[in-house]
Amino acid sequence: MKGPGILWMLQTAAGFSLAGPLFFLAANYLFAGRYAWGVSFLFFGLLVLYFPTYLVNRIGGPRAWVRRRLGRGGDDETEDDSTAADGGTDADRSSGTDRGSPLERLRSR
Fold first, then answer.
1. Three-class SS of residue 48?
2. Among 90, 21, 8, 78, which residue's Cα sits nearest to residue 50?
3. Mean pLDDT in residue range 38-49
4. DSSP class of residue 4?
5. How far apart are CA 66 and CA 62, in angstroms?
6. Is-contact 22 37, C-beta < 8 A?
7. What pLDDT sits at residue 74?
8. Which of 4, 51, 84, 102 is the most buried (most CB within 10 A)?
């Protein structure tokens, strides 16, 4: 069984650390009978709790970061496929002048 990953744990910890004070205020207001303020703090606490997960989903996870760092995004792969159809890149690869990503050079060894 696969457990939660380290990134999920970091997201949850960041969410709880940001939303914890809001939940505390919500509880205080709800117990004091100020329901409008209590419900609003509870609502904003739930939004802030989800914010780190939203941010990571918006910018991509670690695999997307590595792919972007190595220059292997979706647009680059389609360019590589279109240039491979020319037949000119096969000669360049065999002569060793391939200027691909470090991962591609490692795979071609």
1. helix
2. 8
3. 93
4. -
5. 6
6. no
7. 57
8. 51
